[in-house]
Amino acid sequence: MKGCAAIIVAAGSSRRAGFDKLLAPLHGVKVLERSIRAFAGCREITEIVVVCPEERFRAINAADMETEVPVTRVDGGGERHESVKNGLAALLYVPRLVAVHDGARPLITAEQISRCIQTARECGAAASAHPVTDTLKRADEERFTLPEQVDREGLWCMETPQVFQYPLLLDAYAAVTERNMKVTDEVTALQLIGHPTRLVHNHGPNPKITWPEDISYAEMLLELKHRRNTL
């Protein structure tokens, strides 16, 4: 069994964005390529499987990337959890750990990936996240606020990567299939088998590119990081 394999999920159609957000350039590097390179730059990662259409994979020349770990591709499924299962089936080796990452989160750092991997080694399951700091309100169908008070104590915004011991993730997805459920992340799948996930506080920005304005936001964050690094 090898170290930690990475599955980067990038099979979505980008309908909400109105364009292929995964191929949008950020400081000259496409969104999906940035995600791949972050994992390729993490010393614990032993292989990367990108779950995406072949034309998207070709568009970023992923097969020709000069990385020290193999980067391969597999088609996605109709639902997110099916895409992850396809990624698991395409692994070249049986790993100790598996990191699942949303390809539309291009600002993830190798350092945060490493922290999540280390925590998963200790606890079996770990996920990048940050605590909720905004005031939360529940609204009705017409977006008028309801009187309910939403306590943000103990609430966290989930991110990726989410890292798990390989057998745990297999058991979790077996439970998803058996119950014919749809899950939006792997932490939810782990909950089906009663296994908690340790959250790893990410102190840096790790936004998901969903809307066109998210590209501008990510560009701004990259520019600020570049300025700090050149001071």
Terminus-to-terminus distance: 43 Å
The assembly state of the depicted protein chains is single chain
Number of DSSP helical runs? 7
In sequence order, what are the helices and strands, one letter per element? EEEHEHEHEHEEHHEH
The Rg value, from CA coordinates, equals 18 Å
Strand content: 15-25%
Instruction: Please give the number of β-strands.
Output: 9
Strand order of the largest sheet: 5-4-1-6-8-7-9
Q: Which descriptor suits the 3D outline?
A: globular
Query: Which class do the helix and strand fractions yield?
Result: alpha/beta
Query: Can you give the helix content as a percent range?
Result: 25-40%
Mean of all residue-level pLDDT scores: 93
The biggest sheet amounts to:
7 strands, mixed
Enumerate the spans where pLDDT stays under 50 for 5 or more consecutive residues: none
Structure explained in plain terms:
This protein is 35% helix and 23% strand. It is built from seven helices and nine strands. It has helices at residues 31-40, 54-59, 80-89, 110-123, 166-179, 186-192, 212-230; strands spanning 2-9, 25-26, 29-30, 45-51, 71-74, 95-102, 125-131, 156-165, 198-201. β4, α2 and β5 (71-74) form a beta-alpha-beta unit. The model has no long low-confidence stretch (mean pLDDT 93).
Throw out a few tags for this protein.
two-stranded antiparallel ribbon; single chain; alpha/beta; 7-stranded mixed beta sheet; globular; 7 helices
